[in-house]
Amino acid sequence: MGFCSNGTEESELYHAQIHLYKHVYNFVSSMALKSAMELGIADAIHSHGEPMTLFELASALKLHHSKVCVLHRFLRLLTHNGFFTKTTVASRKEGGGGGEEETVYDLTPPSTLLIRSKSTCLAPIVKGALHSSSLDMWHFSEKWFTEDKELTLYESATGESFWGFLNKATESDTLGMFQDAMAADSRMFKMALEECKHVFEGLGSLVDVGGGNGALTRLINEAFPHLKCTVFDQPHVVANLTGTENLNFVGGDMFKSIPSADAVLLKWILHDWNDELSVKILKKCKEAISGKGKEGKVIIIDIAIDETNDDRELTGLKLDYDLVMLTMFNGKERERKEWEKLIYDAGFSSYNITPICGFKSLIQLYP
Ligand SMILES: C[S@@+](CC[C@H](N)C(=O)[O-])C[C@H]1O[C@@H](n2cnc3c(N)ncnc32)[C@H](O)[C@@H]1O
């Protein structure tokens, strides 16, 4: 296209250019968010108790004075991205009553989720999802696409599975980081539990399969103290965890056998596995609840892609998650009809599905 081509074509091209550049540099926004989390900007504003100036923030964060202007530029992007607000207020400095003004930064609902002292803190998710162990593999995708092997991108890049990497004794800090991220995600469930009490009412026992360090089961146990809960996970994951009277930890392999209970809970489990292995897990769940007859159930908390009813932002998040599951585990996020196939292939007779916790779904399966 030359300089004289028609305006529409040019404007379309420029828009396309902006669109492409925006997607190329999306990682900068992600990494700036990670920096904000590492620096503890949200914690600093929260403990200060009121909006802070740039200099107050830099001093609270103990930054080198040469980095004040760097902080300003990070805050400009983070504010643009909705993590902070920037307002001009009358100066609060002593002797500043003479009409002087200052610019202050405050928290927004998304940055409130980075405050470490709050139970809704998602900083461990930011840390885990943007850790080099999750990101480096993407540099190997070209090689991966040309390979005739059923390897995940992670395996193709590193020579081992992500589970293998997590489970290596020497990488126990990474296992801890992964479990902390999962636990942070589970604590968000606290509010949702209020709305879905009916899901657990009437149950005598529950086994949380792949329940990690038990963050979700502890919340359920607090809400239903009489429910006998078991957190079931790989032996090394639950090895040093201690329970309470109605919460115990059991190590094992969900592909072999799952402890019996009235209900089985699977949160963030099936999206880690392909359809064949997911059906295997679901069949083991069905065996585990067989003692309860038709009253037993399996409760799944996972993503359901719904491009028709979800807005673009929500669908985008679900599709991003799908590629994370694909590249790390050969897992997948499923559309409703894919869930339905899985559920019936595993021998369940009915199910219902409802949205929960913003972007997840609660799926109840009945034998
Ligand atoms: C994505 S995490 C989900 C953790 C937890 N349900 C949550 O949402 O916070 C998957 C969990 O499955 C566990 N897991 C993987 N393979 C397993 C197996 N064969 N048997 C039991 N648990 C397993 C992992 O150790 C991990 O804790």
Secondary-structure topology with pairs:
Layout: H1 7-24, H2 26-39, H3 41-48, H4 54-60, H5 68-80, E1 84-90, E2 101-107, H6 109-112, H7 123-129, H8 132-135, H9 141-145, H10 153-158, H11 162-167, H12 172-187, H13 189-195, E3 205-209, H14 215-223, E4 228-233, H15 235-238, E5 247-251, E6 263-267, H16 275-288, E7 297-302, E8 304-305, H17 312-329, E9 334-335, H18 336-345, E10 350-356, E11 360-366
Parallel strand pairs: 3-4, 3-6, 4-5, 6-7, 8-9
Antiparallel strand pairs: 1-2, 7-11, 10-11
The chain binds S-adenosylmethionine.
The site of S-adenosylmethionine (SAM) has 17 residues, from helix 12.
What tags apply to this protein structure?
367 residues; alpha/beta; Arc Repressor Mutant, subunit A; Rossmann fold; 2 domains; 7-stranded mixed sheet; two-stranded antiparallel sheet; 18 helices; globular; binds S-adenosylmethionine
Could you characterize the architecture of this molecule?
InterPro entries: COMT-like, COMT_C, COMT_dimerisation, SAM-dependent_MTases_sf, WH-like_DNA-bd_sf, WH_DNA-bd_sf. Keywords: Methyltransferase, S-adenosyl-L-methionine, Transferase. It holds the Pfam family Methyltransf_2. One of its GO terms (molecular function) is O-methyltransferase activity. This protein folds into 2 domains: 7-114, Winged helix-like DNA-binding domain superfamily/Winged helix DNA-binding domain (Arc Repressor Mutant, subunit A, Orthogonal Bundle), CATH 1.10.10; 188-366, Rossmann fold (3-Layer(aba) Sandwich). Helix content is 46%, strand content 16%. The chain is built from 18 helices and 11 strands. It has helices at 7-24, 26-39, 41-48, 54-60, 68-80, 109-112, 123-129, 132-135, 141-145, 153-158, 162-167, 172-187, 189-195, 215-223, 235-238, 275-288, 312-329, 336-345; strands spanning 84-90, 101-107, 205-209, 228-233, 247-251, 263-267, 297-302, 304-305, 334-335, 350-356, 360-366. The strands form 3 sheets. Strands 5-4-3-6-7-11-10 form a 7-stranded mixed sheet, sandwiched between helices. The protein has a two-stranded antiparallel ribbon with strand order 1-2. A two-stranded parallel sheet has the order 8-9. The chain is globular, with a radius of gyration of 24 Å. The model has no long low-confidence stretch (mean pLDDT 93). The protein binds S-adenosylmethionine. Residues 182, 185-186, 210-212, 216, 233-234, 237, 253-255, 267-269, 272 line the site of S-adenosylmethionine.
